[in-house]
Amino acid sequence: MASTRDDDVLSRLAGNRDGPAFLAPHHLAAAQRLEQLVRRAQLAPRVTVSYDLANVGGRARSGNGVETASDGAADARLRLSRIASALPADCWGVLFDVCGLGKGLQLIETERRWPRRSAKLVLRIGLDQLASQFGLSPQATGSGTGTRHWLEERLPLIAEDAASVG
Question: Cα–Cα distances in Å, from 27 out to 5, 121, 130?
Fold first, then answer.
C-alpha cells in the first residue's frame, strides 16, 4: 500500500519551511481518507505468496478478485469507482499512484513523460477536488450559534437550604 515514501511526499509538500505550505490540512485529510479506502478495497499489488486454498490448483478467478472480496472491500471499490468517475483522469491517476501505490512524484512524471513539477500541481488539483467530494474545506464552518450547554442554567454547587442550616 502506501509506503513511507508516500508519507514523505505528502508531508514534504505540507510542511514547507520557507513560506506557506503547498498542501493544506484538508488536502492531507482527503489523502488519508483515500489511502484508507484503497487499503479497504484491497487493491494493492501482492508482494508475498498467498496460501489461500481457494486459489490453489489453478482455479479460475476474476482479475479484480471480486469473487473473493469481502462486502467491505466491494463497497470500498464501488466508492473508489465513483470518486474516479467524478475526477479528471490525470488527477485520479496521480492520486491513486501517490495515495494508493506510494509512488513518488518524480517517478510519476518520468512514467508519464510529464515536465518536472507538473505532478505536484496535478496532485494538488486532485486533492482540492477530492477534499470537496469528502466535504472537507480549508476553513471550519459551523452554525454560528455559539457555545451550547446541556443545562439551561448552572445549578448551584450547594443547595441554599443546606447553607442556611449551619
Answer: 17, 13, 8
- Alpha carbons within 13 angstroms on the beta-carbon side of residue 139 total 2
| Distance of alpha carbon 100 from alpha carbon 78, whole angstroms | 15
Distance CA 47, CA 50 (A): 9
Q: What is the pLDDT of residues 110-163, one digit of tens each?
A: 999 999 999 999 999 999 999 999 999 887 666 666 566 666 666 667 766 555
Grid look-up 484538508 returns 26
| pTM exceeds cut of 0.70 | no
DSSP character at residue 148:
-
For cell 507538473, what's the residue? 118
